[in-house]
From TrEMBL:
Gene3D superfamilies: Probable inorganic polyphosphate/atp-NAD kinase, domain 1 (3.40.50.10330), Probable inorganic polyphosphate/atp-NAD kinase, domain 2 (2.60.200.30). One of its GO terms (molecular function) is NAD+ kinase activity. This is Podospora anserina S mat+ genomic DNA chromosome 2, supercontig 2. It holds the Pfam family NAD_kinase_C. It comes from the Eukaryota. It comes from Podospora anserina (strain S / ATCC MYA-4624 / DSM 980 / FGSC 10383). GO terms for biological process: NAD+ metabolic process; NADP+ biosynthetic process.
């Protein structure tokens, strides 16, 4: 367990160098450590329950064409269940819904609680935790976020319209990302990049704050300096705002 803490695979979670383990453990037993609880997501895949038959209306048109928006924000009729759960995952970095191996864009519906946020045509959507903001989310153009912020970062991946910009939502919202019934192809959901699950038309995935946060152990820091490790990691690993040379002062301004 100690080795897992010392050699965590993500660069931004590596707070200790294994070569210094004797000094680090001595300081931990003597001065204590700081434990920060990192937000994790709980993602559940919901499968559409097929209808047994489609009735034909009096006007000759087919009735019963299913609408994902109507099913997820409308009222249930006669306790009718439209979806069933099919697996739950704990997510530390991000949950991504993308087009997978399909050559065309994904058509995706995004819901927040009982509201329909928007319909998306894109290669995919990345929903990131603050811890995962420096991973796939950052590469897709999302915002950097301090890991102690209780938020969910929603970032489009190559959206078809430039009006879909990254948004930051509170972690109290329950997001649902689904594939509409009239979508041309399926989409795929991945959980920290380790699992890939096909979402067929009518399926969706729920994303909510997990009841089990991730405990991140850090060296003991004086009060008010808890952000030092994160800021140093950003500067060292991203070269944040570094340039080859500082801008030189203008001549003649020295004495003004």
């Amino acid at each position: 367990r100690r080795c897992c803490l010392l050699r965590w695979e993500s660069g931004f979670l590596t707070k200790f160098d294994f070569e210094d383990h004797e000094e680090i453990l001595g300081g931990a037993f003597g001065e204590g450590v700081t434990v920060s609880l990192r937000l994790r997501f709980e993602g559940t895949v919901m499968r559409s329950i097929p209808r047994r038959q489609i009735t034909e209306g009096e006007d000759g048109e087919e009735e019963g064409e299913r609408d994902l928006v109507e099913e997820l924000i409308g009222e249930e009729k006669d306790d009718e269940r439209t979806h069933r759960p099919d697996g739950t995952w704990e997510v530390l970095n991000e949950l991504v819904v993308d087009r997978g191996p399909n050559p065309t864009m994904s058509n995706i519906e995004i819901f927040g609680d009982d509201e329909h946020f928007t319909s998306v045509s894109a290669d995919g959507v990345c929903v990131s935790t603050p811890t995962g903001s420096t991973a796939y989310n950052l590469a897709a153009g999302g915002s950097l976020c301090h890991p102690e912020n209780p938020v969910m970062l929603v970032t489009p991946i190559c959206a078809h319209t430039l009006s879909f910009r990254p948004i930051i939502l509170p972690d109290t919202i329950v997001l649902r990302i689904g594939v509409p019934f009239d979508a041309r192809t399926s989409s795929w959901a991945s959980f920290d990049g380790r699992e890939r699950v096909e979402l067929r038309p009518g399926d969706y995935v729920t994303i909510s704050a997990s009841r089990f946060p991730f405990a991140c152990v850090q060296p003991h820091r004086p009060h008010g300096r808890r952000s030092g490790d994160w800021i140093n990691s950003i500067s060292a690993k991203l070269g944040w705002n570094t340039r080859q040379a500082r801008q030189k002062p203008m001549k003649g301004w020295e004495g003004s």
